[in-house]
Amino acid sequence: MSQDSLVSPAATARFVVTLPPEPSRLGEALRKDIASKFSSLTDTTDAFRHLALRAQQRLVVMVPYIDTVGAQWAIELFELTSASQRIIVLRDASQLLTCGPAGRRIQELATVRDYAPEGHPEGHSDETFHAKIVLADGVAAYVGSANLLRRSKGVNLECGMLVEGPAVRAIKVVVDAVLSTFAAAG
């Protein structure tokens, strides 16, 4: 890896969080910390909405896990974006079956990809993913811990980075490689 690939002086990044609901020991600790008064925290939902609005051609949501609340969250993003390509990559797309009408709506709004590579007996593989990425074209991305789950949206402490600028190129390369595996599979 070249030195050039490690430095992107034109990139911007914002810290993105989902804080636990109040009353919260973490919330109390943040209120006591003087440094938190000078730090800007971007809410995960706001970051995802920003990416949906930024996407002009393609919005990719790549998370291993989804539930009914998360499916509704994804619907909001796919309905908000003007991008013509809307793609969701899940670890097991059958999770959408447990999401009821919201799961069916995602299938109407987006291309659903199941990242469960075959190649072992009974179709099982040790290859999987745990990454959580939301990519707007190749210009902005979230990389962090939030799944499309009720707990990720409003209960768990979730952290990530909203990245814009040339540094997103590396994220796009990985997402494009993941998406290319579906084309190769047919």
Q: Could you please describe the fold and organization of this structure?
A:
- The protein is of the alpha/beta class and 186 residues long.
- The chain has one domain: 2-Layer Sandwich (Endonuclease, Chain A), CATH 3.30.870.
- 35% of the residues lie in helices and 22% in strands.
- The protein has 6 helices and 8 strands; from the N terminus they run E-H-E-H-E-H-E-H-E-E-E-H-E-H.
- It has an 8-stranded mixed sheet with strand order 2-1-8-7-6-3-4-5, with helices on both faces.
- Helix 1 links the parallel strand 1 and strand 2.
- Helix 2 runs parallel beside helix 3 and helix 3 runs parallel beside helix 4.
- It is globular and about 50 Å long.
Helix content: 25-40%
Total count of strands = 8
Low-confidence stretches: 1-6
User: Architecture, CATH level 2?
Assistant: 2-Layer Sandwich
CATH topology: Endonuclease, Chain A
The largest β sheet comes out as:
8 strands, mixed
What is the topological layout?
Elements: E1 12-18, H1 25-32, E2 42-43, H2 44-54, E3 58-62, H3 68-80, E4 85-90, H4 100-109, E5 111-114, E6 132-136, E7 140-144, H5 150-154, E8 158-164, H6 168-185
Parallel strand pairs: 1-2, 3-4, 4-5
Antiparallel strand pairs: 1-8, 3-6, 6-7, 7-8
